[in-house]
């Protein structure tokens, strides 16, 4: 059976993007993303996602975007687990971006693919 893991999200960055480097020196940028959706006729809801963007795209996001900026993310969902400091098991689903597009006006508008 074929499978598909694809997500496209457009929203606003919830915290300034942070760049870090793997042990091999590969840059990865992390940020939060808020996506508005209609919950019912009169009410909206907001979904929050953690996003990782790798290599040159990650550097572009870290250098040109900030909290509150609109962005479009295209990528895949990744489930991960870890053990917390207190020994409890934790898990979450993150978005791993394969391409990003800067939305909105201004000098930082553009695409990073």
CATH homologous superfamily assignment: Nucleic acid-binding proteins
* Unreliable parts: 106-110
H/E series, N to C?
EEEEHEEE
Q: Assembly type of the shown chains?
A: single chain
CATH topology: OB fold (Dihydrolipoamide Acetyltransferase, E2P)
CATH architecture annotation name: Beta Barrel
- Tally of DSSP helical segments: 1
Describe the largest sheet: 5 strands, mixed, barrel
Strand content is over 45%
Silhouette: globular
Number of structural domains? 1
CATH C-level category: Mainly Beta
Average of the residue pLDDT scores = 91
- Output the strand order for the largest sheet: 1-3-4-6-5
The number of distinct β-strands equals 7
* Coarse structural class: mainly beta
The CA-CA distance between the termini, in Å, is 30 Å
Radius of gyration using CA atoms only: 15 Å
| Helical coverage, percent range | under 10%
Features of the shown structure:
1 helix; mainly beta; globular; 7 strands; OB fold (Dihydrolipoamide Acetyltransferase, E2P); single chain; five-stranded mixed barrel; 113 residues
Please specify the SSE layout and strand pairing.
Blueprint: E1 7-13, E2 18-21, E3 27-38, E4 44-54, H1 55-64, E5 70-83, E6 89-102, E7 110-112
Parallel strand pairs: 4-6
Antiparallel strand pairs: 1-3, 1-5, 2-3, 3-4, 5-6, 6-7
Describe the fold and architecture.
Mean pLDDT is 91; it is low at 106-110. The chain has one helix at 55-64, and strands spanning 7-13, 18-21, 27-38, 44-54, 70-83, 89-102, 110-112. It has a single domain (7-102), classed as Nucleic acid-binding proteins (OB fold (Dihydrolipoamide Acetyltransferase, E2P), Beta Barrel). It is built from 1 helix and 7 strands; from the N terminus they run ββββαβββ. The longest helix is centred in the middle third of the chain and has 10 residues, at 55-64. It has a 5-stranded mixed beta barrel with strand order 1-3-4-6-5. InterPro entries: NA-bd_OB-fold (IPR012340), Primosome_PriB/ssb (IPR000424), ssDNA-bd (IPR011344). It comes from Rubrobacter tropicus.
